[in-house]
């Protein structure tokens, strides 16, 4: 897992797959994009722009992926994200779905929390369990970009 400013993403060349395509996409006007899937580099790199309401921490669910890593950034608003590096020890609640590249886990007794807001990003590699979409204080609306990059 990496948590840093968008302007520093270039220093993670050895850690983030397909970083050149990701950086080119990040240089575009993301705020002007409509919600939905955005092709970047075929099946290797794509993004999803979405607008949604944040939820309470107790309603959050941990997820992890196997084929794709996530680069998550907020275009508007802020959200809390729970993080557990190395999901293998977590109790799986919904088995891996290869078509969606996702599996779900029960929340562990303790986990790290980061706040995503404009100008910051989080990179979740394979096995990094994360619980996105949690309200920071009062629940509200956010606009988010999740870039999927093939591992």
Strand order of the largest sheet: 1-10-5-12-3-2
**How many beta-strand runs?**
12
Report the CATH architecture: Sandwich
Class based on secondary structure composition and strand pairing: mainly beta
Distance between the termini: 14 Å
Number of domains: 1
Give the overall shape, derived from the CA principal axes.
globular
Structural key phrases:
six-stranded antiparallel β-sheet; three-stranded antiparallel β-sheet; globular; 151 residues; Jelly Rolls
Describe the structure.
- With 151 residues, the chain is mainly beta.
- A six-stranded antiparallel β-sheet has the order 1-10-5-12-3-2. Strands 4-8-7 form a three-stranded antiparallel β-sheet, with no helix packed on it.
- The mean pLDDT is 96.
- The chain has a single domain, classed as Sandwich (Jelly Rolls), CATH 2.60.120.
- It is 5% helix and 50% strand.
Secondary-structure map with pairings?
Elements: E1 2-5, H1 19-26, E2 36-41, E3 45-53, E4 62-64, E5 68-76, E6 78-84, E7 92-97, E8 102-105, E9 112-117, E10 120-124, E11 129-134, E12 141-150
